[in-house]
Amino acid sequence: MRIFDPHIHMTSRTTDDYERMAAAGVRAVVEPAFWLGQPRTSPASFADYFDSLVGWEPFRAGQFGIRHHATVALNPKEANDPRCRPVLDLLPRYLDKDAVVAVGEIGYDSMTPEEDEAFAAQLALAVAHDLPALVHTPHRDKARGVERSLAVVAESGIEPGRVVLDHLNEVTVGLVRDTGCWLGFSIYPDTKMSPPRMVELLRTYGTERVLVNSAADWGRSDPLLTRATGEAMLLAGFTDDDVDRVLWRNPVEFYGQSGRLDLTGLDAAVDAGTGTWAGNSILRGGS
Q1: For this protein, what is any one GO molecular function term (predicted)?
Q2: 3-class DSSP state for residue 196?
Q3: Fold category of 3-256 in CATH
Q4: pLDDT band at residue 282, thresholds of 50, 70 and 90?
Q5: From CA 84, how far away is CA 145, in angstroms rounded?
């Protein structure tokens, strides 16, 4: 089983996670920029974070044979902080990076006017840079948030097939299914979606334009729940080809629209056990 996790926050994960993921069949990931758990106080902290997403994390992932790409954005929660709004002026510099395959996460947290403005501005950047967009749907009042997100996407002029609305569930999937946008589902231990629930949705709606991710971050989450979903699909009677479509070919198709997805040479992993410095378990980036 080959797995491409289209939404996972490896900044918050350990090197042990990379080892486990590689052993489970994860060959590629996309890491979206997100809120780190406490407020950032200036655009400079975002610049350091974005530099890590396009520098250190691809280097760290590559030592386990995992190809790492990123999406960058001012996330919805921090769009409400006036100290962070100048990040919008930083984004064009990063949206030109080879490893950046979409604008994201953008969308809504509390559905404020400030979030409206940041969402629309970043969809315009996606159009200007010819990139797909990863839209975060809010955790609260999700149905209204999805409807509002779809309205903003429609107003932006971006091609719907270049947009994924993530963190969908049984209540919201029907709102998105016939819009032409992609359907994103996050598999979690307690919240969002579970493998059995995901299987039922795939039975109902099919495997087209579906992205299944772990969205693993600093909260209670599991980077191997993509694998668990694939195994649940097989037990439910889906074919190996169905699993490959959902867990590999769909994310390749969606992010391939960026023209920057590079999955060549995935078997040329660096041996993390050699060349390390002063007994560290992993090669270091920088000097």
Answers
A1: metal ion binding
A2: helix
A3: TIM Barrel (3.20.20)
A4: low
A5: 22
